[in-house]
Amino acid sequence: VNRRRAALWGAAVLVLAAAGLYALYEVSRARCFTLAGPVACRVETQRPVVALTFDDGPTAQGVDAVLPVLDAHGARATFFLIGREAQNRPDLVRRIVASGHEVGNHSWSHSRMVFRPRGFYGQELRRTEAVLDRARGPAPRLFRPPYGKKLIGLPLAVRERGLTMVTWDVEEPTATDPQRYADEIVAQARPGSIILMHPMYGANGTARAALPLVLEGLKAKGLKVIPAGALLENRG
Ligand SMILES: [Zn+2]
To answer: How far, in Å, CA of 162 to CA of 143, rounded?
Structure first.
């Protein structure tokens, strides 16, 4: 009997531990909530403005494709850059800034930023800040968590550095057809939206091909594209 009772207790503990881990997993990927500090996934506004955010890189392939399209549409966007990659391509960071766009901090190593030693988070933020500062643009004020993952240490470090954590409310479509990809983004976008796109790497051809269609669709919907920082501060 005692052995059976022990087995039951063991099973109960396992179930509770699994439920706890699942809850932590869900909290870690929540777009509009953190356990330890603010996060912006969109802005409540009546103004017909949205932010277009490009994650990762910079790469020459992505920057060469994206900058002329944004320019042709008079759109200013936000690029969340990986410190380690920005360090290797300071020319690309400078081109983004010189074209009037905003750069944000997307961590140094693009690793999952949960269950790390306390000092890890601050170091990831500081090293990236130092690289982005060399582009001589306005100091980056925004941080986007890699994979959207965060629990407690990261939000605390982001706040300590005086940064604002930004996620998104318009998810990147999985469609491989550029027109469908663009249509899905435009259908979800509304005043105050923050749109996520990944245009930087070889496998991101759909996002690059879809960008002009996204910009045309947003314009047809009466939505103007402004940097995320301006959206959050209700200007631009
Ligand atoms: Zn990323």
So the answer is: 10
